[in-house]
Amino acid sequence: MQFKFNVLVGAAIAMVAGGASAQELVVKIGHVGPTSGAIAHLGKDNENGARMAIDELNAKGVTIGGKKAKFELLAEDDAADPKQGTAAAQKLVDSKVSGVIGHLNSGTSIPASKIYSDAGIPQISPSATNPKFTRNGYKTTFRVVADDVHLGGTLGRYAVKELKGKSIAVVDDRTAYGQGVAEEFAKAVKASGGSIVDSQFTTDKATDFTAILTAIKSKKPDIVFFGGMDAVAGPMLRQMKQLGINAKMMGGDGICSGELPKLAAGAMGDGQVVCAEAGGVEGAQKAGMEKFKADFKKKFNADVQIYAPYVYDATMVMADAMVKAGSSDPAKYLPVLAKTNGYKGVTGTISFDEKGDIKNGALTLFTYKGEKREQIAVVR
In terms of DSSP bridges, do strands 167-172 and 363-369 run parallel, antiparallel, or are they unpaired? Predict the structure, then answer.
């Protein structure tokens, strides 16, 4: 009898223990960015933004469909390479993630988006700005930043109307992002009555720009626009100074980082660089962004580079849709995610249109004084 009682008690304890663990829901969220290679500092910035959101969600004890959710971050490195990006995407699909935040670059985000679409897994990019990213008709593709039409167009108009650029040279790195933003910039320059005196291209791995800069110098431009990332823009600024090219450099969010002055190694004069970040907060929202930056610095002992707040918001928006849907099953929460409207994030208010683009996306124009990035204006 005693034996039978012990067995029953043991079974009851096992059932309670089993019930407790069954009440916890493990939610895997993937993140992909270049955490190796020339722009690893930007990839790590993104990954840390995701990590911050995941840690906060777990600390809050979020419940989804009556179960306590335990969020897990599955972080992958795509080295800003399209082939490695699709391999990382497939790995996350095979790992049965509920959603993916990423990728950082347009050149990796676009090919990866098909893999996520085929698997029915939602993908929110915090930083891919090429218009094609959301133009393939995939229901799983979203972004929380304005696209290159807005980004390049705003910079092109600013170059002519505010900086009074008369002769402008354009260089791009032949990536989906660099080429896309450069083309939109050139279109807006021409539409605003400016003149493109030279167009050159390089690669995202190049370090020597003597040939293209020598060709540009002969055209005497007052502005050189570079479509690409800060790892290339920094050395280009150094070589512009060595060749005596006194033009301003303009660029998109790819060059608009805290790291650019270091990469330029003292070759930047005050106000010489004007760039735009695909996002922006104004007024009362600034306090929330400043708090985020301070919390980020405390947690990771590093300053925000560019996109960490957008990654954080993208992760939170995804989790919010799961909570509202009562499920982390992509098929169940995807329709709720697509209807996101008025989510208050640290980067501003997030609402998606029918393509998955952010509605009324802002841009922030910056310049540099010494080593510090300074805001010029927020434009919508």
Answer: unpaired
